[in-house]
Amino acid sequence: MIKKTKSATAFKKAKTFFPGGVNSPVRAFGSVDGDPLFIAKGKGSKIQDIDGNKFIDYCCSWGPLILGHAPSAVVKAVNKACSNGLSFGAPTVQENELAELILKNNKYIDKIRFVSSGTEAVMSAIRLARGYTGKDKIIKFEGCYHGHADHLLVKAGSGLATFGTSSSAGVPEAFANETIVLPLNDIKAIEKTFSTFYNQIACIIIEPIPANNGLLLQGKEYLQYLREITQKHNALLIFDEVISGFRVGFEGAAGLYKIKPDIITYGKIIGGGMPVGAYGSSAAIMSKIAPEGNVYQAGTLSGNPVAMSAGKAQLSQCLKKGFYKSLEQKTKKLCDGVNQFAAKEKMPFKMISVGSIFWLRFSKNEIKTADDIDPKSMNSFRKLHAYLLENGLYMGPSGYEVGFVSAAHSDEDIKKTIKILKEGLKKIMN
Ligand SMILES: *Cc1c(COP(=O)(O)O)cnc(C)c1O
User: How far is the CA of 62 from the centre of ligand 1 (A)?
Assistant: First the structure.
């Protein structure tokens, strides 16, 4: 067993400070064995905890770290920005520079607004959609996560209930009533909703690559259908690309599927590891945002020069020729290596991936909706997770979460990972 005494002590202390000992729930190891590890440092593909254990990291801070940990280009840019002051609450050229880099290389948006988290980006995008269309109701999907704003913490109602029910205490029923939650990959459900709530739907919001509840890859035709039905009903289509943006390509899922939504939200990678989110759209729709328009949205630390510099340094690397191709190939090599083994051993398991996002699917069958995931399969993940930690692989502590390959993962890392995953699967499946 690896040594975990310092982490255990730190967690005990953390529990006296924070609810559940953490500042974001999924960190708490609630669905895997043991206590969370406290991380001391990271470099490239590796992290080290405060007991000195080293791991190849596939959590990558839940997605932002596409270059791996502490990449020198980003660290240098942050240091330089810091020495000139951390925030001014007045415009800086660093905001222009990051915006220019993004907009020049993304044909799906004309204008952008920076905020400080993915939650904030999505919350603002929904307000913009409502302000622009003058309608209140929104459609979201079971199996997509859009941050923790009130009207997005809503799950499908049971039985014949038309409206969603809140998935958190503290969300007024009246808010939940404005959110309609539908299953993914179900065209009939959408048609029915548009006819029931004729002219009341402001927008459909979807993770075009749903990656917060397993990896529920949708067909391009389905996403194209969402594009067309929203246009037909004067509703907006929002792609929440907080994970997929700058991950499956510089232009994210919009670029991958060649579909132009009305608003796109970003987060995670865009800030190079610093707290940044953003939403972008056409110049016409963005003109509704204050101070140009009457949809209010603001932020004291929005676009602060340190975060902007980190984002610019990271995204500049992503623009290098072959960057995404190489990430995808590495990820494919990892998945193929494990999948060949699992198929030979006839295990109900497959690693599925898109770009450099992967998911450990404990099922033989293709899964496109949240309902199709068997909760019992999470028991297998829990066992595998413990084995991987013992053997030097760090994955996000939940079987519903995806993993990320970064540019810093070496061929050697991938080879070692395949070996450990194979051994782990063999152990837990018998
Ligand atoms: C992570 C995530 C969010 C929330 O972003 P935070 O920065 O955690 O607030 C929203 N949408 C999607 C798709 C995400 O993956």
Answer: 9
